[in-house]
C-alpha cells in the first residue's frame, strides 16, 4: 500500500515547510503549510487542515491514554481501549513527522531550526521534568540526566536522531525494509541499554521512514469512502482482540522501550511481535487517517500547538500519580469515573494547545537564539544590497 521509493522532489513541500515539529509559525510546521499544494486536504489560513486535524486528534488520544493507564489494573475494558489506542497514536504522529521531513538536509537554516525546535525544548523539558519529579514525588535524588529521557521527552530525542538520518534514508534502495530490520534487531538486543532511549528510537524508526516514503496520493487513498467504512469493523475487531489479550499480554509491548528478553520472552518471539505490531499499527493508522476530517473544523487551529499539549500535559499526567488522585477517589474507577477521566484529559490537552498557552511557553518551544549561531556572510551581503 505504501511504496518504499522516495518522494519525487517536485511533490515535496518547499524546504521551510518540512523542518518543524509543532511550531506556531506556518513556515515551521510539519502539519501543512500554504505550500503543501499536493496534500489531501483544503488549505485555510496558510495551513493544511487534514494534518492539523490529525495531529490534534492524535494528541487527544495520547492524553486519554495516559489518563487510562492508572485504571487498567482494575478494568479490562479500560485496558482494551488503552492497548488499542497505543497501537496507532504515536505511530500516526511519527508518520506525519516523517512526511514533513522529506526535504530535510544539512543546510544551515534547517539544522538551526532542528536545534531550536527540537534539541533546546528537549534540554529544557528534560530538566523541568527532573525537578518536577524531585518535588512532586518527594524524590530529591532523582538525577537530571540528558542521556536518559524521562517520560515524554524520548520523542524529542528520537525526532532529532531520525531527522539527522533523513539524507541516508533518501539514498538507500529499500528504506522501509531496512528500517524494519533495524527495529527487529533492536527488539532482540537487550545490551542497547537506556541511553537516549535508543530502543524506542530504533523500534519506532520504521514509522518515520514510512512517512518519508509517502506521497500525497497515499493519504488520499485512505480517505476514500470504502476505506472509511472498512475501518469500522477493523476498529471493532481490534477492540475485541485487545479485550481478549488484556489479561494475557503485557501492554509494555506497545511502548517499544524494551527488548524481548527484558519483557521475559525469547528473542524469536520478540522478532515476531515487532513485525506483527508494525503491521497492526499500519492498519490502525490507515483507519485513523480515514476518519480525520479534511475540512477546517473548530479544532484545526489547535493542530499547530500539539507539541505544547504533548509536553505540558505530562506534568499533570505524572502529578496525578504522584499525588495519589486515582487512589484517593475510588469513584474514578467506576464506568462513570472512567468517562469523566477521559473527558477531563481531552479537555486539558485541548486547552494546552490553544494560542494563549503557546504564547506563554514560546520561549521554551520556539526560541530564536540568533545569538547562538554564526551569521551567514551571504545573508549579510544580501541584506546590504537590499538596503
Any chance you could write out the topology, listing elements then pairs?
Layout: E1 43-44, E2 47-48, H1 49-68, H2 76-86, H3 89-99, H4 108-136, H5 154-164, H6 166-169, H7 175-187, H8 198-203, H9 205-213, H10 216-222, H11 225-245, H12 267-290, H13 306-322, H14 325-328, H15 335-352, H16 355-365, H17 377-386
Antiparallel strand pairs: 1-2
Helix pairs in contact: 1-2, 1-3, 1-13, 1-15, 2-11, 3-9, 4-5, 4-13, 7-9, 7-12, 11-12, 13-15
Structural class: mainly alpha
Spatial order of strands in the largest sheet: 1-2
Instruction: Tell me the radius of gyration.
Output: 21 Å
Overall body shape: globular
Low-confidence segments: 1-45
Determine the fraction of residues in helical runs and give it as a percent range.
55-70%
Number of strands: 2
Number of helices: 17
Whole-number mean pLDDT: 86
Order of helices and strands: EEHHHHHHHHHHHHHHHHH
Strand content: under 5%
Kindly, what is the distance between the CA atoms of the first and last residues, rounded to a whole number of angstroms? 52 Å
The biggest beta sheet reads: 2 strands, antiparallel
Amino acid at each position: 500500500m505504501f511504496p518504499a521509493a522516495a518522494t519525487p522532489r517536485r511533490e515535496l513541500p518547499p524546504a521551510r515547510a518540512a523542518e518543524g515539529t509543532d511550531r506556531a509559525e506556518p513556515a515551521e510546521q510539519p502539519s501543512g503549510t500554504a505550500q503543501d499544494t499536493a496534500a489531501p486536504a483544503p488549505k485555510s489560513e496558510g495551513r493544511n487542515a487534514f494534518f492539523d486535524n490529525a495531529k490534534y486528534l492524535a494528541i487527544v488520544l495520547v492524553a486519554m491514554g495516559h489518563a487510562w493507564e492508572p485504571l487498567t489494573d482494575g478494568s479490562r475494558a479500560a485496558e482494551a481501549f488503552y492497548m488499542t489506542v497505543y497501537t496507532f497514536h504515536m505511530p500516526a504522529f511519527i508518520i506525519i513527522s516523517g512526511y514533513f521531513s522529506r526535504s530535510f538536509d544539512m543546510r544551515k537554516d534547517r539544522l538551526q531550526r532542528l536545534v531550536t525546535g527540537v534539541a533546546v525544548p528537549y534540554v529544557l523539558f528534560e530538566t523541568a521534568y527532573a525537578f518536577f519529579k524531585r518535588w512532586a514525588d518527594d524524590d530529591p535524588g532523582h538525577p537530571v540526566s540528558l542521556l536518559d529521557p524521562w517520560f515524554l521527552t524520548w520523542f524529542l530525542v528520537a525526532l532529532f536522531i531520525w531527522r539527522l538520518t533523513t539524507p541516508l534514508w533518501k539514498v538507500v534502495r529499500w528504506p522501509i525494509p531496512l528500517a524494519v530490520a533495524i527495529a527487529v534487531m533492536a527488539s532482540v538486543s537487550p545490551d542497547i541499554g537506556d541511553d537516549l532511549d535508543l530502543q524506542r528510537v530504533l523500534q519506532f524508526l520504521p514509522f518515520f521512514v514510512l512517512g518519508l516514503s509517502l506521497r500525497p496520493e497515499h493519504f488520499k487513498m485512505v480517505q476514500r469512502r470504502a476505506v472509511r467504512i472498512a475501518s469500522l469493523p477493523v476498529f471493532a475487531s481490534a477492540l475485541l482482540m485487545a479485550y481478549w489479550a488484556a489479561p494475557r499480554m503485557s501492554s509494555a509491548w506497545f511502548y517499544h522501550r524494551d527488548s524481548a528478553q527484558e519483557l521475559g520472552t525469547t528473542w524469536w518471539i520478540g522478532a515476531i511481535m515487532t513485525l506483527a505490531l508494525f503491521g497492526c499499527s499500519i492498519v490502525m493508522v490507515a483507519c485513523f487517517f480515514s476518519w480525520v476530517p479534511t475540512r477546517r473544523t473548530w479544532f484545526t487551529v489547535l493542530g499547530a500547538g500539539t507539541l505544547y499539549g504533548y509536553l505540558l500535559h505530562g506534568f499533570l499526567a505524572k502529578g496525578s500519580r504522584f499525588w495519589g488522585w486515582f487512589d484517593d477517589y475510588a469513584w474514578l474507577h467506576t464506568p462513570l469515573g472512567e468517562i469523566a477521566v477521559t473527558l477531563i484529559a481531552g479537555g486539558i490537552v485541548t486547552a494546552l494547545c490553544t494560542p494563549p498557552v503557546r504564547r506563554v511557553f514560546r520561549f521554551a518551544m520556539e526560541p530564536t537564539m540568533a545569538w547562538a549561531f554564526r551569521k551567514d556572510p551571504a545573508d549579510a551581503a544580501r541584506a546590504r544590497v537590499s538596503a
